[in-house]
Amino acid sequence: MNPAGQQRARIREIVEGCLRSAIPPEALLPPDDIDWIESGLLDSMAHVEVLICMERAIGSPNLFDRSGIAPPATIQLAIEAIEAIEAIESLPQHSLHSVPETKSWGQHSTGRAGLLGWGAAFGSRHLTPAQVEREFNMPMGDLGRRAGLERLCRAPGDEDEISLAKAAAEKALERAGVHAQSLSWIIGTSETVLGFPSFAALLDTALLASGNCRVLDVGGGCVGLLNALVVADALFADVRVENILVVSADVHSRVLVPGKVPGELGGLFGDGASAFLFQRSDEEAASTRYSIRTSIGSCLGTYSAALKVRPSLDAGIAVEFDGESLAHAVADSMERIISDLEMASGVPREAAIGFALHQPNPRLTRILLQRARLPLEKVPLIAASYGNLGASTCGAALSAILDLHAAKPGIIRGPVFMAAVAPGLLWAGAVLA
Fold first, then answer.
1. Mean per-residue pLDDT over the chain, rounded
2. Which of 127, 128, 168, 335 has its CA 20 to 30 A from that of 296?
3. Same structural domain, 278 and 296
4. Which pLDDT belongs to residue 379?
């Protein structure tokens, strides 16, 4: 066999081996030109797992994203994609491992604001995956076995975004020893509070903040909390600002309901809130508190069609949802955010004591942990226990990490990485240290 034939045989062995690892043992490999997704052989998550398996076997991270073509879904296309990439990588003076230039908010080391208090709150009604599957008339096992969901939290009739936000905020204020009357700003983010008064204004009233407290709503969906943290950090440039409360809250269970959205989307979401109190710090206090050291973010418009949710003309919800493309985009983007944070901050991921990550669903979270080489014990799996909480997924994860580590001396405490993606495809990351 000539060298080209040997190379193709090697690549075929890798492709077929990775495909076998994701299909039932008794199943036969499909013909070379049969689509794995359309034929029902793989679901979108298993497809992502197969692609990652191939990338690892080849020793080329993010191979398929860098090839400039759609992720292959047949044996033939996978072989051709790997051949093309290996041919390009063999060219002299060519590297595919450089981090592209991104739009960034840059690096912060001002020490102006320290994180003094935090808290999270969840809908008090807990459902099993089977209960949610029955609600959405889904095949049994889709949410539990295939998505990895263990339970889901929902807000009952006497709870809403404001009550959850207030509960989380009061925990943060109490921990910080700060009264709501002392707040300079309340910055809120919510994707389910629509209309006026806005989410931040309603929370201001619920907390009985002073008439001097200013309020601001920040958008971004699942990256809303990270956006709000960066805004809060910037506002401390005003020397009059002393305390800023950042709060996220969403009640998805009254928006993403059966009959309006498919179960594979709506069935993954829970209800929750998170809150963080930042206070101006002098140099001595800054050394004992977490603060935002580095933040980055941008928008990848090439993935903007993967998920679109908006009100429709008939008072319903218009949804465009490509689970396969979205899963691959999220897994790839989250790993890139971690890598870019390492470069921007100079902090290796191995030094982090925790990773507060957005988690679209538990199974995808485990995939991206594998891809980004992140240890499971450093990542609070919020989505498995509560569901996707929107912006508050990152917030609840950060709160759990701070519960464990914030009291440690700064010299041994270690940094925290945060990363999230949202429809658009918006992405953001931050390092707290």
1. 85
2. 168
3. no
4. 94
189 half-sphere exposure, CB direction, 13 A CA radius:
27
The span from the CA of 68 to the CA of 141, in Å, is 35
* Residue 105 within a domain: no
> Do 173 and 245 form a contact (C-beta atoms < 8 A)?
yes
Q: State how far the Cα of 303 lies from the Cα of 421, in Å rounded to an integer.
A: 11
Q: The CATH number of the domain where 297 resides is what?
A: 3.40.47.10
In this predicted structure, which of 42-51, 66-75, 175-184, 391-400 has the lowest mean pLDDT? 66-75
pTM higher than 0.70? yes
Tens-place pLDDT, residues 325-337:
666 677 778 888 9
The 10s digit of each residue's pLDDT in 160-169 is 999 999 999 9
Say yes or no: 403 and 418 in one domain: yes
Q: Which domain holds residue 168?
A: 113-286
